[in-house]
Amino acid sequence: MKSIQESFAILIIGLCFVVSGPLYAEGTPNTRGMNMPVFADFDLDGNGTIVKEEFLKARSERVAKRAEEGRQMKNLADAPSFEDIDTDKDGGISPDEFSAHQVRQMEKRRKR
User: Fold this and answer.
1) Which residue ranges form the domains of the chain, and what is each CATH number?
2) C-alpha to C-alpha distance for 69 and 66, rounded to whole angstroms
């Protein structure tokens, strides 16, 4: 009987990790202790493309939230512009462009 209870407890703990994983993932710190935003954080209308207005609004909200939390605002002046991320210059940031930018940012941080 004890073995069934132990198995059930392990199953419940495992399910907790599975369910909480995606909730935690967005706020998981990267190697430098900063939270990397996800595409959905900037695609405010959910249409699969980030336009400049969405980008600026989401960035300002993110900065305001981090300031409220008392986080350091270092390197804010060096933050990439919309144009830096919109590499095909079509006026919108695609998920692929966003991901490529995130990879470039992580590579920069690793080199420091």
Assistant:
1) 32-111 (1.10.238.10)
2) 5
